[in-house]
Amino acid sequence: MGENMATVVDVAELAGVSxxxxxxxxxxxxxxxxxxxxKVMNAIEELGYKMDPNSTGRLRKKILYVVCGGSQDEFVDNxxxxxxxxxxxxxxxxxxxxxxxxxxxxxxxxxxxIISGVLTCGLPPExxxxxxxxxxxxxxxxxxxxxxxxxxxxxxxxDVMMGHDAVLHLSKxxxxxxxxxxxxxxxxxxxxxxxxxxxxRVAHAELGIPVDENLIKQCDxxxxxxxxxxxxxxxLPEMPDAIFCAxxxxxxxxVNKLTRDGIRIPDNISIMGCGSxxxxxxxxxxxxNVTQSYYEIGLEAINLMNARIMGKTVLGRRLNIKHTIVDRxxxx
Length: 332
Description:
Layout lengths: L7 H8 L3 H8 L7 H14 L14 E7 L4 H13 L2 E7 L9 H8 L5 E5 L6 H8 L4 E4 L9 E5 L1 H14 L5 E5 L8 H17 L8 E3 L4 H12 L7 E4 L2 H13 L9 E6 L1 H5 L6 E4 L2 H16 L7 E5 L2 E3 L6
Parallel strand pairs: 1-2, 1-3, 3-4, 4-5, 5-11, 6-7, 6-8, 8-9, 9-10
Antiparallel strand pairs: 10-12
Protein name: Transcriptional regulator, LacI family
GO molecular function: DNA-binding transcription factor activity; transcription cis-regulatory region binding
Organism: Hungatella hathewayi DSM 13479
């Protein structure tokens, strides 16, 4: 069959499934059995089906593939709203912290031009190879984390300034021994952790406070790693009076550990995370943090994706979205 002649109905008939099932497969819904998914993908490949949102019998909207490293529900909810208003539908994949790979399913989606672009959020650094391959076929826009650096398109907050502003904010509250918990013990640490540490150091220089290297501890994404770092801090001759964490989940682990150990937060020590409003508010003790606006990040990411799909921009760029600092119950 000639290119772009096949319709969703044709795919459904060849695969022996309903049109709704074809639509779910294209959106990567988890409500489709592996057997039916394979039949649909084989039919798409055999017929050479390619999405044309303006043709009768085809999907009406272009599809963006959103890949998240974890459960970034706040980001996904905002992207859903913004994408729908912009004429897109989205399919979402969660990698559960694992790197994105060019698996068979992804290759078929790309080969048959079912998706128009890929948005990422919170992927581990090892995903760079797959993203570079995908970007040769459809546009990739990275949100919050810059993994693929060659001619990359990124929408995020300024991580250096997030670390800088967190320290200045804690300083205004009277904190002078501010510790930093980063993610340097990961095999391939997130770049934002290093950038936020840089901001931490710059702020100390501005305040005229020498950086005590004993107050900087590196962790990975596990609770045990954070607990060990806290134990090391507690063995110091003088405890820190505040801890700034490169990631909200690290701060939540710190709050849990210190509270169990009988240390009152924020009376004895202030804790500040870095991330989103949702992750901060769902902690049992609402977390003070440097907050990124996922809505604004999503809006600019969709705008940038539109420009890339329409061929209006070919040179990589990074858009920084303004962050805010919110005091909740873990700072004085």
